[in-house]
Design brief:
Layout lengths: L5 H8 L37 H12 L2 H11 L5 H29 L3 H4 L1 H4 L9 H18 L3 H29 L5 H4 L11 H15 L3 H4 L1 H4 L10 H27 L11 H5 L5 H32 L8 H14 L3 H4 L2 H29 L24 H11 L3 H8 L9 H4 L2 H20 L28 E4 L6 E4 L3
Antiparallel strand pairs: 1-2
Helix pairs in contact: 2-8, 2-13, 2-15, 3-10, 3-13, 3-18, 4-10, 4-13, 4-18, 7-15, 8-13, 8-15, 10-18, 15-16, 18-19, 18-20, 18-22, 19-22
Length: 503
């Protein structure tokens, strides 16, 4: 039967023509308000991602045009490659620490971000041209949407394909650019010329660091969406190393390629061309144009599915699982990505600089609150069943944990004046802009500290704290009497104390 046959399309689409999600009973079949197949703990047989899968995922996420655009935003501050590369490395290194910590949450309990965040913020707080050009965009949009609708277990194939095709393309472009410029050109070896009228070198460097963290700041909170598929609970340190290594090496290519474009084709008075497809268009060889463009299209699709579509779909499905699942949320974001015209954000380095800095204002406090709650306050001990229950231990006060919201806003509000100045440069806010240059770091640490102080000295969330962790089923947890009751380990993932608990 053809993949696009009318009968197959009808069988795929018809269940979604009703308001309610086609419900497939899972572990928590009596809790449709909080549970559906996409939000329940990942079944044992689907926990198959290992180190190679996650490195392929990071290749898919990192080696893409957004990396080039973000690096250009840093260099637009007046830096050359000599200063930019250390900023890129340390930005990704900092982000990698938090991504590893939050990814471990999902890998331990095999649940996605919208469910993890219920234990922290409460049950109700899970939710953030010309005609030919348009034709090209919509062809690309159709391809991306079809791939985004694939189940996550099948996306491993997309990540592996990209990991095979894209890195050699980046390497070939880097070698070509290094050869034609005889070592890199002015963007690599030139002097520092700061472009911001009110920032010195230190604050400009902090701004660049903040931008690099901002590129993956959403994954610093959403990594449980992918970590839950781990077969070894993120064992080893490979996750911590993947982001800074791949990201730093990958950032060399856009710097050298842009420098090569300036060396070969840029006319006097023209701006530096950071948009990689525009550089590819200047190649003389049609074969080089085709294969490079295909690789970049694959890179962009992999990046958008991994870092945009899938995390968004998971978050939205957590708001009201009875009516929204990942499939429907993916269709929603696929439409929204057209009407929101995101190309206007990345059309110049200044616009991307403002966007990523503003984005990190939200992500830093959120990540700080999550890390403090899970690792310091609750000491990694959750009751996974209570995360799917009305008026359970994570209900807090009317479904909200006011402590988490107070900590979040304490880290977020102080950077708002700086954000306003980044949009309107003439705005006089005194020295308040200085905090904004390291908005993510400020928000992360302030929110973490405030949450710790509230929970330790003002109002401890005692009802949400458990002495013994309760995990989803692990391999080998089959009831010996064959009754089908679930066996839940306590005291550790591989602890000795068991409790047979029908869910």
């Amino acid at each position: 039967m053809s993949l696009l046959s009318p009968s197959r399309l009808k069988a795929r689409i018809q269940p979604h023509l009703h308001w309610r999600v086609p419900f497939e009973a899972g572990i928590y079949q009596n809790s449709p308000r909080w549970s559906n197949k996409d939000l329940d703990p990942v079944p044992i047989e689907l926990r198959i991602w290992g180190p190679l899968d996650y490195w392929a995922y990071w290749c898919s996420d990192m080696l893409a045009p957004p990396l080039a655009s973000t690096v250009s935003a840093v260099i637009s501050l007046g830096f050359t490659a000599r200063q930019t590369i250390p900023i890129v490395f340390f930005g990704f290194l900092i982000c990698s620490v938090v991504i590893t910590l939050t990814g471990k949450m999902g890998a331990t309990y095999n649940i996605p971000y919208p469910v993890i965040v219920r234990s922290i913020f409460g049950m109700y707080a899970a939710p953030g041209t010309i005609a030919s050009g348009l034709l090209t965009f919509f062809l690309y949009w159709i391809c991306q949407t079809m791939l985004a609708l694939m189940p996550i277990k099948k996306l491993r194939i997309l990540f592996f394909v990209k990991a095979i095709i894209v890195p050699p393309t980046f390497l070939a472009l880097f070698i070509w650019a290094a050869v034609v410029t005889k070592g890199g050109g002015p963007l690599v070896n030139g002097p520092v010329k700061l472009t911001n009228p009110y920032m010195n070198t230190a604050y400009s460097a902090l701004t660049g660091l903040n931008v690099m963290i901002g590129l993956f700041s959403s994954l610093a909170v959403n990594m449980p969406d992918f970590g839950r598929f781990s077969r070894d609970q993120f064992a080893g340190y490979h996750q911590f190393l993947a982001l800074p290594i791949i990201g730093t090496l990958g950032s060399l290519t856009p710097i050298f390629v842009t420098s090569a474009h300036s060396y070969l084709w840029r006319l006097p008075g023209e701006p530096v061309q950071w948009y990689m497809p525009a550089v590819i268009r200047m190649f003389d060889s049609r074969a080089a144009k085709f294969f490079t463009a295909f690789s970049f299209m694959l890179a962009t699709i992999g990046n958008q599915v991994a870092a945009g579509t899938y995390p968004f779909s998971n978050d939205i499905s957590g708001i009201y699982p009875k009516y929204i699942n990942i499939y429907r949320a993916t269709l929603l974001i696929s439409v929204f990505c057209v009407i929101s015209t995101p190309w206007n954000i990345i059309k110049n380095a200044a616009g991307l600089l403002s966007f990523l800095s503003g984005y990190s204002c939200l992500m830093g406090p959120l990540a700080g609150t999550m890390v403090c709650d899970y690792y310091i306050i609750k000491k990694q001990k959750l009751n996974v069943h209570e995360l799917y229950k009305d008026h359970g231990i994570y209900w807090y006060d009317y479904g909200f944990n006011w402590r988490a919201f107070a900590a979040f806003f304490c880290g977020f509000i102080p950077v708002l004046p700086g954000f306003a100045k980044s949009v309107t440069n003439s705005l006089n806010i005194g020295d308040a802009w200085k905090i904004y240059t390291f908005a993510w770091l400020f928000g992360f640490h302030v929110s973490m500290l405030v949450y710790y102080v509230i929970c330790r000295f003002i109002s401890a969330p005692t009802s949400a704290m458990v002495d013994v962790a309760v995990y989803p089923p692990q391999k080998g947890d089959i009831s010996p009497d064959g009754s089908g009751d679930e066996v839940v380990y306590k005291g550790g993932v591989h602890g000795d104390e068991k409790e047979v608990s029908p869910v």
